[in-house]
Amino acid sequence: MSQIIEQNTETGLEQNAAPSESRAAEGEISNGAMAGPASPALPAHLQDLTDRARGYVEAASSANTRRAYAADWKHFTAWCRRQNLSPLPPDPQVVGLYVTACASGSAVGTSARGSTPNSVSTIERRLAAIGWNCAQRGMSLNRKDRAIATVMAGIRNRHAAPPRQKEALLPEDLIAMLETLDRGSLRGLRDRAMLLIGFAGGLRRSEIVGLDLGRDQTEDGRGWIEISDKGMLVTLRGKTGWREVEIGRGSSDATCPVVAVETWIKFAKLARGPLFRRVTGQGKNVGPDRLNDQEVARLVKKAALAAGVRGDLPEIERGLKFSGHSLRAGLASSAEVDERHVQKQLGHASAEMTRRYQRRRDRFRVNLTKAAGL
In terms of DSSP bridges, do strands 211-212 and 223-227 run parallel, antiparallel, or are they unpaired? Predict the structure, then answer.
């Protein structure tokens, strides 16, 4: 890495060229999608195929991932510009210096004073974003190079912290949250349906808002529902491909996810398109637009706080405990069934991942202290 520093202090030409190169690299990102390296102009009759190919490139990753990678690349190129370094072609020594700056808290400016170091998970995501962005330009970043790998190993050893999991919402918590919603309003009916289907289906927040009323109804849909007498079949396009989630009817209409969805569809007068939409006009109209997945996280947090869930904690700490993931973790933590059924419902590739979700259910169930005779 010292070679990079010496090279940039001795070669004025490289110092002058780097900022413009950085701005050019940063400017290749548009709306979260990555533009590839310049290529010869294509004939007009291939323009439609070009547009379709661009759409497939974007479909290769989620919108959230593309937004995060675009922001991370912008962060990296801005740091390079401030240091008079060039982000392209990718140099492991430059990337090693960058992740060091992120870990020390100096990546936001020229000084670490008053800045906050990035978490290990954030640094790893930014490293992945740099590699992804380089790959879109036909360049490769060798993350196994010792200038990156050794620095990252040291960062993990020094700064890695235990994962901060979101609080799992148990059935009694969810029922209390439902009581805080207005059953006489469209927004209340919608929110009730989202909470129940998210919990009973063990769905991710993007999967909840990505549902349509039927198959092939929208281009941005991530799945659809089919309601029958026994329950609701949810077909989802998730991280590991397509899967089906069975949501049975509840023991009471008040807590039945299928009844909640049916009621929302009826009063919202929905026929096709997105299942969960914005409620407009002071809560009297239902718009055509699909909800953003952030709305699920806000709903869970707001309802949990209103219901007094984990009232033993200060309000600020309580607000950090809950998110959309709390519904998914809640099902895994409370469903007293064979582990493989929970694994199938959540769409996990391994049983180990499912066990991480089963948080409260299995704690202290086996007391080895007493079993040892103490």
Answer: parallel
Higher pLDDT, 220 or 193: 193
Q: What is the pLDDT of residue 112?
A: 43
Query: For position 10, what pLDDT does the model report?
Result: 35
SS (H, E, C) the chain: CHHHHHHHHHCHHHHHHHHHHHHHHHHCEECCEECCCCCCCCCHHHHHHHHHHHHHHHHCCCHHHHHHHHHHHHHHHHHHHHCCCCCCCCCHHHHHHHHHHHHHCCCCCCCCCCCCCCCHHHHHHHHHHHHHHHHHCCCCCCCCCHHHHHHHHHHHHHHCCCCCCCCCCCHHHHHHHHCCCCCCCHHHHHHHHHHHHHHHHCCCHHHHHCEECCCCCCCCCCEEEEECCCEEEEEEEECCEEEEEEEECCCCHHHCHHHHHHHHHHHHCCCCCECCEEEECCCCEEEEEECCCHHHHHHHHHHHHHHCCCCCCCHHHHHHHCCCHHHHHHHHHHCCCCHHHHHHHHCCCCHHHHHHHCCCCCCCCCCHHHHCCC
What's this model's pTM, rounded to 2 decimal places? Answer: 0.66
> pLDDT tens for residues 231-250?
999 999 866 678 888 888 99
